Amino acid sequence: MPHDPFQRVLDAHADDVLRFLVAALGRHDADDAFQETFIAALRAYPRLRRDSDVRAWLFTIAHRKAIDVHRGRARRPVPVESLEDRAAPSTPDGGLDGHWARVRALPERQRAVLTLRYAVDLSHAEIARVLACSEAASRRAAADGLARLREEVTA
Amino acid sequence: MTELRPPVVDAAVLAARFAARAAESGDADVAYTVIDTPAGRLVAAQTPAGLVRLAYEDLNGSVDRVLESLARRLSPRIVEAPARLDDARRELDEYFAGRRRDFDLPIDWSLATPFARRVLQATAAIPFGETSTYAQIAAAAGSPKGARPTGNALGSNPIPIVVPCHRVMATGGGLGGYTGGLSRKQLLLGIEGVRLG
């Protein structure tokens, strides 16, 4: 079977990719990461195997873009994100971004798993494909991440 | 952790911005839009080389069917980028309003075989308001087999209206066929002031 027109991939997944990036990076950086994710996907699209899981493939790219931004921030002297988080209650989803801000402070694997699981509802099987890890590792990272968030709440 | 709820988003504006940029930069091989005309809805597709397809939506099944065919025959890197087709939209509007006789749009002939391309280029030379015949076009295109292959090439014209296959009539003086249906052929010839016997 030939590839679908790329527009169909965009229509089907744009909202979920943006949801993932907003949770992973905050609204400010999500817009640029969205553009970079889809331009990278468009360029690579003809090389995608026809029997591939398009959704998992797309989130693999989005996940890599999110990591790039996180690593870029780590090198930056001023913690931009903390400034942005103070403005979070004015975003359309109210104060909810505060929780995602705490997820963003978790170690890389836990952060990625929780974001893919709870922002875009990927199954652990799908997350395992995106992160190239086992399903068990995905479940473990989710459990560890959630435990850590609870500790922070009760601390 | 029920607090970890999906962020509320609407990606429509960002997605449209992405598609427009990808078409502009050439990362997308094909930009398309749908254009409403008195002859019906047209799926218009453009490559960096020019207009490559103008498809009557109803006669090709649906917009999706047209795009699937383009994905198969040209490239799957297809995005909806209406601004890239502003010139085509404007020229078609002017044509249907009786304010334009010739199209100035660059043409990408990728969807035509070398023979069909000769036929269609001969057809493109027929002036506004005039007609030719299959036999004359066949001769102009250097078709050794006469009018039938020429008729087939015209029937699969990827860019009707702009490449005016509606100006080609049956050799005996009849209306002949049309890739968009005969009522459209009559509509287009009527716009051009051609009197039909």
Mean pLDDT of chain A: 87
What is the name of the CATH class of chain A? Mainly Alpha
Individual helix count of chain B: 7
Largest sheet of chain A: none
Instruction: Work out the count of structural domains of chain A.
Output: 1
User: What distance lies between the first and last C-alpha atoms of chain A, to the nearest angstrom?
Assistant: 55 Å
Shape verdict of chain B: elongated
Rg of chain B, please?
19 Å
Mean pLDDT of chain B: 93
Helix-and-strand structural type of chain B: alpha/beta
CATH first level of the largest domain in chain B = Alpha Beta
Strand order of the largest sheet of chain B: 3-2-1-4
State the low-pLDDT regions of chain B, or none. none
Radius of gyration of chain A: 16 Å
The biggest sheet of chain B amounts to: 4 strands, mixed
Counting DSSP E segments of at least 2 residues, the number of strands of chain B comes to 6
Q: Order of helices and strands of chain B, N to C?
A: HEEEHEHHEHHEH
Number of helices of chain A: 8
In short:
With 155 residues, chain A is mainly α. Chain A has helices spanning 6-25, 27-44, 54-75, 80-86, 97-104, 108-118, 124-131, 135-154. Chain B contains 7 helices and 6 strands.
Can you describe what's shown?
Chain A is mainly alpha-helical and 155 residues long. Chain A has a single domain, classed as PhyR, sigma-like (SL) domain (Butyryl-CoA Dehydrogenase, subunit A, domain 3, Up-down Bundle). Chain A contains eight helices and no strands. The longest helix of chain A has 22 residues, at 54-75. The radius of gyration of chain A is 16 Å and the shape is globular. With 197 residues, chain B is of the alpha/beta class. Chain B folds into two domains: 12-96, Double Stranded RNA Binding Domain, CATH 3.30.160; 114-191, Winged helix-like DNA-binding domain superfamily/Winged helix DNA-binding domain (Arc Repressor Mutant, subunit A, Orthogonal Bundle), CATH 1.10.10. Helices cover 37% and strands 15% of the residues of chain B. Chain B is built from seven helices and six strands. In chain B, strands 3-2-1-4 form a four-stranded mixed β-sheet, with helices on both faces. In chain B, strands 5-6 form a two-stranded parallel ribbon. In chain B, strand 2 and strand 3 form a beta hairpin. Chain B is elongated. The mean pLDDT of chain B is 93. The interface between A and B is large, with 40 and 33 residues.
